[in-house]
Specification:
- By secondary structure, this protein is α+β, with helices and mostly antiparallel strands.
- The protein is built from 11 helices and 18 strands.
- The chain folds into 2 domains: 118 residues, OB fold (Dihydrolipoamide Acetyltransferase, E2P); 220 residues, no CATH class.
- The strands form 5 sheets. A 5-stranded mixed beta barrel has the order 2-4-5-7-6. Strands 13-16-15-14 form a 4-stranded mixed β-sheet, with no helix packed on it.
Length: 353
């Protein structure tokens, strides 16, 4: 039966449902994060039964204060109970029912409808994409990921201009792109070599291996971002590390003779782009073998640093929705390959621990 027959009001977040425990019939979306045990604890493995689940706005949520407890009546246990279906943990669902206390905690009881959201289908497709890398670590994992992402559509350098207008589109203004180092929202079509124009920044500096703008390393969208022209010039081919003098034009950006520290909001993005390049380009098929090392001043060698700093940035600046959307667009509309460290951030430590 369609949800509309229940005359329920859609709530956009579990937090709203938590704040509105008024006995009304509502439709709530959230990620399955565990099974309630008490008002202040949940199970996240070795589930004891199929009678209830907890959902949250964030699939990595650990605080029960930010969770909504869902009663599973007999109609829904075989599909949504975690004892029977542990693989649905972290899937997103839409549930309609009565907002009222459950387990002495903010809850939803007497469900009238529970459905997986379209996002859960996408998540399943992504997991299938990485199936051959499951349960692997270290160099074995790196080789498996390389085999998965190796073959993809290669763009011309001219094609990159138009692609960036969509991969880096401002989510609040479809006429603009977001520039990586300044964070400035700017017209998609104000690109070029003039002052305050944006141009194509190779996050893995193209001189580190001297691959230039040739197809493959030089046109791979997973590491090319729109950047203010003069800020891009200021970065040059510097490796990444903390410290230095304030850049001036890009807020919270610092540099010295051999390193570049971008603003906090993109430090993790940059780290994951560098890690992608080191896995995608392994020296086969006539390509370069790019590797991350723990040095700066790598110059024309096919190395990029500084590994220890990039690992810190990866942990300090987790994957966000802008990165996820960008990864999806590159996969679906352009290259048909993904950055595995956006989909599975935990794999960074498995390879570079």
């Amino acid at each position: 039966m369609p949800l509309s027959t229940y005359e329920a009001t859609t709530i956009s977040s579990t937090q709203e449902a938590i704040n509105n425990q008024d006995g009304s019939s509502q439709t709530v979306e959230g990620y399955i994060v565990g099974k309630p045990l008490s008002s202040s604890s949940i199970q996240t493995s070795s589930f004891s039964d199929d009678y209830s689940i907890a959902i949250a706005d964030d699939q990595d949520e650990t605080s029960t204060e930010n969770m909504l407890y869902i009663q599973l009546t007999s109609d829904y246990r075989s599909t949504f109970g975690l004892d029977t279906n542990s693989s649905i943990l972290a899937d997103k669902i839409s549930v309609t029912g009565t907002l009222t206390s459950y387990y002495g905690h903010a809850g939803l009881k007497s469900p009238q409808s529970i459905e997986f959201s379209s996002e859960s289908t996408v998540n399943s497709e992504i997991e299938e994409y990485y199936q051959s890398a499951e349960n692997k670590t270290g160099d074995t994992l790196k080789r498996s990921l390389h085999a998965i992402i190796d073959d993809h559509v290669e763009l011309s350098y001219n094609d990159v201009w138009n692609a960036l207008r969509y991969t880096d589109q401002d989510p609040d203004n479809s006429n603009n792109v977001i520039l990586i180092y300044t964070g400035r929202s700017q017209s998609k079509y104000r690109n070029g070599n003039g002052i305050d124009d944006w141009n194509r920044e190779h996050v893995w500096a193209k001189s580190h291996g001297d691959f230039g703008t040739s197809k493959g390393e030089g046109t791979d969208l997973h590491h090319i971002r729109p950047s203010d022209m003069t800020v891009n010039s200021s970065r040059g081919n510097k490796d990444f590390d903390n410290g230095g003098t304030a850049q001036g034009e890009a807020d919270d950006t610092f540099y010295d003779s051999d390193s570049w520290e971008p603003r906090d909001e993109v430090k993790g993005d940059i780290a994951r782009m560098i890690f992608y390049m080191a896995v995608r380009y392994e020296g086969d098929s006539g390509e370069l073998d790019l590797e991350v090392n723990d040095f700066v001043s790598n110059d024309s060698s096919p190395y990029h640093g500084k590994l220890s700093t990039l690992l810190e940035w990866h942990n300090e600046d987790p994957v966000d929705d802008f990165e996820r959307t960008r990864n999806d667009i590159i996969y679906e509309d352009y290259q048909q390959n993904r950055n595995p460290f956006i989909d599975h951030p935990e794999w960074v430590e498995e390879i570079w621990n």
